[in-house]
Amino acid sequence: MKTILDRLELTEQEFGNRPAVDDGSVCLTYTELVRKAKGIAGILCDQICVNEPVAILAEKSTATLSCMYGVAYAGGFYVSVNPEQPPERIRKILEVLESRIVVVDEARREQLAASGYTGKILYLEQLYQDADERHEGADEKLAAIRGQLTGENPLYGVFTSGSTGNPKGIVVAHKSVLDFIGHFTQIFGIGKEDIIGNQAPFDFDVSVKDLYSAMFTGAKVVLIPREFFSTPPRLLDYLCDKNVTVLVWAVSALCIVSGLKGLKYKVPEKVRIIMFSGEVMPIKHLSMWQAALPNTEFVNLYGPSEITCNCTYYRINRTYEKTEKLPIGSAFPGRTVFLMDDEGKIVTEPGVSGEICCAGESLAIGYYNNPEQTAKQFIMYDLNGETTRVYKTGDLAAYGTDGELYFAGRGDFQIKHMGHRIELEEIETNFMALDGVERAVCLFDEGKNRIVCWYLGEIEPKEVRIRLKEKVPAYMVPGRITRVDEMPYNKNGKIDRAYFRSLIAAK
User: Fold this and answer.
1) What is the DSSP letter of 51?
2) d(CA 104, CA 100)
3) Judging by DSSP bridges, how do beta strands 53-57 and 101-104 pair with one another?
């Protein structure tokens, strides 16, 4: 088996008439999904090259998923772009991709125009409709493309924050997904009878586990509309009505439900396993979910997008006190996870923190059009006497006296907030690009789980917030913005970040 497409077709052969994906309005069987994907590919194959990125600016839906698979059949790789992002951010993503073609749904036509994109536009609704027509010569062309594809070809790209002010595009190959999802579905017993409740948008690689776990096993994936998460009763009714059995959610999504007392309204009793990732799970919220679903298994997942979804997992087998920390667990099969100190030596001593590094299968190809950053994060390292490719996460961890691995924060300006990895430098760069702002410093207040920023300039904080929302996603906009009369500097002439950290600590 070389590509995801091979696996998709095996599943279609076995489970063709079973439901594959349900977005609340349209439900496709596996046979219908494959037919739609191949139909879209027949349209795209004359317009894109093998290994070319195709950005898809659309809400998640059965049509969007069909298009993602269609891009893969046409030999390209898809990049889902979240419509919630401001036009400026979309512009930067498309510039990194050097996009010749963008697929957009009709509702986002003006948003794409506002980004300044001038390349070719294909409309999702039309693609989805035309996929049912037979396109002359398409079968032969797709067969020829298929013959060129291997597991090393890129399947998808996801964007994360970048320190230069520009987002970084992480590119993941077919084989990486095949390897990881094979282990993932086996370890957690995901099978054809499962119904997976998809929370994450398609530009967030948490969704990769939902979509491909279903595709691997013949399970059904239910796409949960984004707006449901602002109204927990509506969300919980949906989970119950759809008989969802598996949740692979961002920590922030689970906390929204428990924080708004949703579990007191209704409990999704058919959910047999809940897996979470993206940031540290607050014990208070975990306890609420455990109390509501005492027979449900809970799993803590860890890992950045660069290693294909996750590299460690921990099955939670008890309740925890509020002061305790959750382990991040053991490596998935095919992976080696270890800690490295500042001198490049492996750390094994309990209580001593080191940078989490990952080697083995499923590492990303790298950052698209960014060889310098790729070389910085993906290094060659002598591991157990063998030189191997290693991804340096930038995350810190330490072994406890119990032998378990515990997350210990970031070693740089990158943070984890609302399930996203964010470079504080990117926020600062966009901040200081605003007219009326001279200098800015951004930090993360872990106690209040918010980004805070201080700036020197003429513009009012309210106006800063409005303008910043035009440049970065909502999750990157600071929760507190304060104007200062002067910016303190240390003896080296740099902004005194220690001073601002003390302000956070004093509150």
Assistant:
1) T
2) 13
3) parallel
415-441 pLDDT, tens digit each: 778 778 787 878 887 887 888 887 788
- pLDDT one-digit tens code per residue, 147-162: 999 999 999 999 987 6
**How far apart are alpha carbons 398 and 471 in whole angstroms?**
36
Summarised one tens digit per residue, pLDDT across range 301-352 is: 999 999 999 999 999 999 998 778 899 999 999 999 999 998 999 999 998 8
Cβ(383)–Cβ(359) below 8 Å = yes
Q: Which DSSP string do the residues of 448-488 spell out, in sequence order?
A: TTEEEEEEEESS-HHHHHHHHTTTS-GGGS-SEEEE-SS--
Residue 162: predicted pLDDT: 64
**CA dihedral angle for residue 227, residue 203, residue 87, residue 374, rounded to 10 degrees:** 150
Residue 76 near residue 40 (C-beta atoms within 8 A)? no
Euclidean distance between CA atoms 322 and 412, whole angstroms: 27
Task: Kindly list the distances between the CA atom of residue 22 and the CA atoms of 65, 66, 195, 197, 211, in Å, as whole numbers in the listed order.
Answer: 11, 12, 10, 10, 11
How far is 500 from 504, CA to CA, in rounded Å?
7
Q: Does residue 408 register a pLDDT over 90? A: no
Domains of the chain by start residue, with CATH: 1-166 (3.40.50.980), 330-410 (2.30.38.10), 415-506 (3.30.300.30)
Whole-angstrom distance between the N-terminal and C-terminal Cα of the chain?
56
Q: What is the dihedral of CA 287, 289, 290, 296, to 10 degrees?
A: -160
Distance in angstroms (rounded) separating the CA atoms of residues 428 and 494: 14
375: phi then psi, degrees, rounded to nearest 5: -65, -30
Query: Is residue 176 within 8 Å of 200, Cβ to Cβ?
Result: no
| Greatest pairwise CA separation for the chain in angstroms | 71
User: Which tens digit of pLDDT belongs to each residue from 110-125?
Assistant: 999 999 999 999 999 9
pTM over 0.90: no
Instruction: Report the C-alpha gap between 33 and 286 in whole angstroms.
Output: 36
Helix (H), strand (E) at residue 276: strand 273-277
**Tokens 């799993």, residue located:** 299
Q: What is the residue whose two structure tokens read 């449900």?
A: 296
Q: How far apart are CA 9 and CA 341, in angstroms?
A: 45
For residue 346, give the amino acid letter.
I
